[in-house]
Design goal:
This protein is α/β, with parallel strands linked by helices and 597 residues long. It has 4 domains: 114 residues, Butyryl-Coa Dehydrogenase, subunit A, domain 1 (Orthogonal Bundle); 105 residues, Beta Barrel (Butyryl-CoA Dehydrogenase, subunit A, domain 2), CATH 2.40.110.10; 156 residues, Up-down Bundle (Butyryl-CoA Dehydrogenase, subunit A, domain 3), CATH 1.20.140; 167 residues, Up-down Bundle (Butyryl-CoA Dehydrogenase, subunit A, domain 3). Helix content is 56%, strand content 11%. The protein contains 19 helices and 12 strands. Helix 4 packs across helix 8, helix 8 runs parallel beside helix 11 and helix 9 crosses helix 16.
Amino acid sequence: METAVNNPSALKGAEFLVKNTSPDAVFIPEDFSEEQVMIKDMAEQFIDKEVKPVLDRIDKLEEGLMPSLLDKAGEQGLLGAAFPEELGGLGKDFITATLINEALGAGHSFSVAMAAHTGIGSLPILYFGTEEQKQKYIPKLASGEMKGAYALTEPNSGSDALSAKTTAKLSDDGKFYLINGQKAWITNSGFADVFTVFAKIDGEKFTAFIVDKDTPGFTLGAEEHKMGIKGSSTRQIYFQDAKVPAENVLGEIGKGHLIAFNILNIGRLKLCAAALGGAKDCIDISVQYAATREQFKQPIANFGAIKHKLAEMAIRTWSCESALYRTAQLIDQKEKELLESGKAFNEALLGAAEEYAVECAMLKVNGSEVLDFVVDEGVQIHGGNGFSDEYVISKAYRDSRINRIFEGTNEINRLLTLDMTLKRAMKGKIDLMKPAMEVMNELMSIPDFGNDDEGPFAKEQKAIAQFKKAILMTAGAAAQKLMMQLETEQEILMNIADMAIETFVAESALLRLMKLNATKGEPSSGLLADIVRVYITDAADKINKSGKDAINGFAEGDEQRMMLLGLKRFTKVEPFNTKDARRRIADKMIESQKYIF
């Protein structure tokens, strides 16, 4: 392993696998400025005062209600916070924008409408539009005067977006493109004023267009009846010789994939942020319920089984948060670095998000699955009441499920995690080969059982370093053995991605703890240390299982036995009493009646 880096921008995308990071180099939530805390408080108050009291009305798709809430959010500057000031926004940095997404994540269907508007509904124009297009649309999108939507998915093209059948043909006079086709699952479609629509010019050149709702030949289908996020407007949209002005082509003709995929990188991180906000809210609800619900003449919060659930909800949420803001800072710093080098505003953020596309994919998977875990355990804590619509946890359970499908399914994001990492290595952006060879050589040598542990977190640091060796060993051997065939072995790819996700989150949590220890005197035996040690202990078992499944999927004989022994060595951690640690974590939340970390 290489030495620690003190400049966060020196850590390239996916390079966490082969480089260590100094704790003082990471951004953690405890580093938020006073202004950022105020903005977060404002966003949380907006959800509490404006959204939560009308959740049932939102779910009934009361006409005009969702647009009016977006108008109110726009009045408070929440819609255009990350847009440039010269285009009607507040010009806030990427970390602040991420924080707003988290704070608004407890708004159920409103959170979806809000994220779709400020993200995929607006960013394609902001980043790829001409100056005229930006001046025409962005100030109104920033204020909420116009609402945005994004039309990529079709009935027969979801993850395989480039197989879209919607077509565009230039009119004989060259003034319009005639668009024909159909789009499905379009969020905000019932009230959106402007849509980013993807179509193939002459059936071949995949291109993006800005389409206004009053475009002739553009029509909407009925509202979809969904399992969750019922208050989010979701319709199919139809184009029958829809006349779109030629000047509404967005970006370059035939380069629509650049818009579609680059916007998704940012969207994945923001989805993680919103899921995080939802998870914290559901923990509050579950803790309060467990503290007041009595069975066997005492609150159910007194029982170990319930404490285990509450603590695990908090452990996964805190660790996910650590990884989220670590990545948000990396993107923020890369964006500033690119701006200083002379890149335009749009090129800077898109370039930064592309640099950390691997981390964004991992966050999307982790955030959505943490929220799913939290709401599922929340329902369980509520027992039969959790199955009743009278309790908001049942709404949270239904609303959560879409997040594993949005912004590319979690399966796609797992496959992308390793695919993008290997491509970065092949392009020479990161060196995986040398560290992987070093790990394989280590397997052939006699294990070092020396005790060189120093410092309060030496054992945890060693565990993370060993987890990375497990990934390099497994991924390196799989790539060498299967070569071009590896891309068809999706199960193996997903196994290795799971190893990487667990390691990235565990390392992020440890770095946050170490920074708090160094800067704020956080005790190495306190509740946050309990959170990190439980996470690392459990991650070791998960990484071992995923590694074992991967190795058994491509290796056999002596090679298989050697690698399984190496995996066992690399996922061995010090024994830790996770039961007592979880009880300490749960007791503190029960005492405070909320998520306090």
